[in-house]
Design brief:
By secondary structure, this protein is an alpha+beta fold. It has helices at 2-17, 23-33, 37-99, 107-121, 126-130, 132-141, 161-172, 273-302, 309-315, 320-338, 345-348, 350-359, 363-377, 384-408, 422-430, 434-455, 462-487, 494-518, 525-540, 550-581, 593-605, 625-644, 650-674, 678-707, 712-719, 728-731; strands spanning 175-176, 189-198, 205-214, 217-223, 231-238, 243-247, 256-261, 264-269, 587-589, 620-624. The strands form 2 sheets. Strands 1-5-4-3-2-8-7-6 form an 8-stranded mixed β-sheet, sandwiched between helices. It has a two-stranded antiparallel ribbon with strand order 9-10. It comes from Pipistrellus nathusii (Nathusius' pipistrelle). Residues 319-339 have a biased composition (Acidic residues). Pfam families: Exo84_C, VPS51_Exo84_N. Component of the exocyst complex involved in the docking of exocytic vesicles with fusion sites on the plasma membrane.
Length: 735
């Protein structure tokens, strides 16, 4: 069986592997040849086993190929590293030879250099191939041809712009993934060296890196241990957004400095104190040179093109010599007037002190320094040194503003309430950005309110959830209003308008959550009325600080309350029509005195004080069950609707009451006309009298008490002896 199975599997494999295999035709033939479901199941299992075997073979082959690929890639990596080093060496030799005039070399050296150049250009002549080692050693012996291996080239010490560019290109061939970032014309390498990066909080060593300082940016690359002399791109920082801070030695942590790039910072350790000092000096020099270059470019861009201003003045003034003689004398006093003393130590160290304050999150100290500088320079001229200082300080102000804006961003932690934002808001206001501070403060508080509402746990009981929702929202709103009044007391009054707009937006957020829980879940009218009452009570607490948002909550809830009143009205009308369809016009028998006493209490609660006259002997009531149920339901609807009432709902409530009452009086009127039995007709008249003379006056009085003014529509209903003529189309569905 095993042999047959193996042979069958081999035959099946060959059949599936054949080039002319067609799946559809194969399945068709298999279906025709099989005896039944069992054969197809067995064949399916064989194909499944063959698929699993094939998958295992594929995995095994892939694994073997992967191992070979890794070994090959490792060999290629070693070879690539050697090729990069060889290319770098050849490029350095060629660059050095090109920068030294041949006439300055001795005869032997000139001949060797010419031979090397000729061999390189000619594709490798015999003289360049015979003794390459001797030739390389000879070139290395020439002083100044190669940069020192420790620190790299310094700005101004290189062989010229072309040589700087070639040096940058050669060194960056060692860094993977950065060539596309360094394609700016005029960019060159200033300094480079090995560093060790440390973690900022716990000062734990992170990794070895190599820094490449260009004339406009700093490139940080990490070591590749498996590839000698090669690096991988890590980060690129523009110099105009980079601050350098010296880190004091604290053994065993020494020879360190910090780079600040908003919103992050990195700490590096140099090999020794000398190299650390070189890094600090060259970074400051390069930043200063970049700032001077940008300033000159801005001045050139601002100046009119064509003839320089001085030349234009000379060309257009025929009396130049006379005016020059007259103006030479007062020129000195003007120069003396424009001088501003910037030699004080605190002014010289101001940019660095601002960097330290920003890095240490001492925002108050930074703004104090800025205020001190502004007071000192107030009413003083602005010669170039002052403008240069202003440019440096403005850059720090921008960085400080960015940090403060980040502190107020909604992405930051929202814990701590509105007071947690006071520090950043107050410093932004001191920087003259009160409007921006107001916008960021309100945006932060909106995110906090939204988060608090989302985190509120939805309880099973709607009223309990609404109590929690109102407490969370209105407490946050009250705290925000008080903090806003504290922070922006002395600012432009336009900020208060922004707060009112924000409060309305926040109220909309609250009403969305409120309506979703109360009205969308189809709660009863009594529950909805209680929830709205709770919301109004909390909203009135804002009056303690002079903020009345009751009209806003009314305007936002009016549509939902209208929908609730309409839905409950339809429920009452349907229930009344259903009872009318089963009306037999019989007296109620409550069976027990307790039940009769309970009904009397309910009627008294509804405002029907004269219900005693409609009770008979024992437990009988001389009214129909339909009329009594209608009375209780209508008065209940009126009470709950009055709890929800505000002026925008006046007509909705009145029209709903009229519709409900018309259903009952239409039925009584129709029954009175159609009934032939004298006893039943007298009983119907008694029920009609109860509706017209007792229930409707109570409804009218209670409506006037709740609203504050009478309703003419209800008076018209009561004053008519026959409220509505019978409409056969409307009564056929009732009777």
């Amino acid at each position: 069986m095993a042999m047959m199975s193996d042979s069958g599997a081999s035959r099946l494999r060959r059949q599936l592997e054949s080039g002319s295999f067609e799946a559809r035709l194969y399945v068709k033939q298999l279906s025709q040849q099989s005896d039944g479901d069992r054969d197809l199941q067995e064949h399916r299992q064989r194909i499944q086993a063959l698929a699993e075997e094939t998958a295992q073979n594929l995995k095994r082959n892939v694994y073997q190929n992967y191992r070979q690929f890794i070994e090959t890639a490792r060999e290629i990596s070693y070879l690539e590293s050697e090729m990069y080093q060889l290319s770098h060496l050849l490029t350095e030799q060629k660059s050095s030879l090109e920068t030294i005039p041949l006439t300055l070399l001795p005869a032997g050296a000139a001949a060797a250099a010419a031979a090397a150049a000729g061999g390189e250009e000619g594709g490798g002549a015999a003289g360049g191939r015979d003794h390459p080692h001797q030739h390389h050693q000879h070139l290395r012996g020439q002083a100044g041809l190669f940069p020192a291996p420790g620190g790299g080239p310094r700005d101004g010490a290189g062989p010229g712009e072309d040589g700087k560019q070639r040096t940058l290109t050669t060194l960056l061939e060692k860094v993977e993934g950065c060539r596309h970032l360094l394609e700016k014309p005029g960019q060159y390498l200033v300094y480079n060296g090995d560093l060790v990066e440390y973690e900022a909080d716990h000062m734990a060593q992170l990794q070895r890196v190599h820094g490449f300082l260009m004339n406009d940016c700093l490139l940080v690359a990490t070591w590749l241990p498996q590839r000698r002399g090669m690096y991988r791109y890590n980060a690129l920082y523009p110099l105009d957004g980079l601050a350098v801070v010296n880190v004091k030695d604290n053994p065993p942590m020494k020879d360190m400095f910090k780079l600040l790039m908003f919103p992050e910072s990195r700490i590096f350790q140099a090999e020794n104190a000398k190299i650390k000092r070189e890094w600090l000096e060259v970074l400051e020099e390069t930043k200063r040179a970049l700032g001077e270059k940008k300033r000159r470019e801005q001045e050139e861009a601002a100046a009119p093109r064509g003839v320089p201003p001085a030349a234009a003045a000379k060309a257009g003034n025929p009396f130049e010599e006379e005016e020059d003689e007259e103006e030479d004398e007062p020129a000195a006093p003007e120069a003396e007037e424009e001088k501003v003393d910037l030699s004080m130590e605190w002014i010289q160290e101001l940019p660095e002190d601002l960097d330290v304050c920003i890095a240490q999150r001492d925002f108050e100290g930074a703004v104090d320094l800025l205020d001190k500088l502004n007071r000192y320079l107030e009413d003083k001229p602005s010669p170039p040194p002052v403008k240069e200082l202003r440019a440096k300080v403005d850059e720090r102000v921008r960085q400080l503003t960015d940090v403060l804006v980040f502190e107020l961003s909604p992405g930051r932690s929202l814990r701590g309430g509105p007071k947690a934002t006071r520090r950043a808001v107050s410093q932004l206001i001191r920087l003259g950005q009160g409007t921006r501070a107001c916008e960021l403060f309100l945006r932060n508080r909106a995110a906090a309110v939204h988060t608090a509402i989302r985190q509120l746990r939805i309880e099973g009981a709607t009223l309990l959830y609404i109590h929690k929702l109102c407490h969370v929202f209105f407490t946050s709103l009250l705290e925000t209003a008080r903090e806003f009044e504290t922070d922006f007391a002395g600012t432009d009054s336009g900020c208060y308008s922004a707060f009112v707009v924000w409060a309305r937006s926040a109220m909309g957020m609250f009403v969305d959550a409120f309506s979703k829980q109360v009205f969308d879940s189809k709660e009863s009218l009594s529950t909805a009325a209680e929830c709205v009452k709770v919301a109004k009570e909390h909203c009135q607490q804002l009056g303690d600080i002079g903020l009345d948002l009751t009209f806003i909550i009314h305007a936002l809830l009016v549509k939902d309350i209208q929908g609730a009143l309409h839905s409950y009205k339809e429920i009452i009308i349907e229930a009344t029509k259903h009872r009318n369809s089963e009306e037999m016009w019989r007296r109620m028998n409550l069976m027990t005195p307790e039940a009769l006493g309970k009904l009397k209490e309910e009627m008294r609660a509804c405002g029907v004080g004269s219900f005693e006259q409609y009770t008979g002997d024992d437990c009988w009531v001389n009214l129909s069950y339909t009329v009594v149920a209608f009375t209780k339901q209508t008065m209940g609807f009126l009470e709950e609707a009055l709890r929800l009432y505000f002026p925008e709902l006046h007509m909705v409530l009145l029209e709903s009451l009229v519709e409900i009452i018309l259903v009952a009086v239409q039925h009584v009127d129709y029954s009175l006309r159609c009934e032939q039995d004298p006893e039943k007709k007298a009983f119907i008249r008694q029920n009609a009298s109860f509706l017209y003379e007792t229930v409707l006056p109570v409804v009218e009085k209670r409506f006037e008490e709740g609203v504050g003014k009478p309703a003419k529509q209800l008076q018209d209903l009561r004053s008519a002896a026959r409220l509505l003529r019978v409409n056969p189309e409307s009564t056929t569905s009732v009777v």
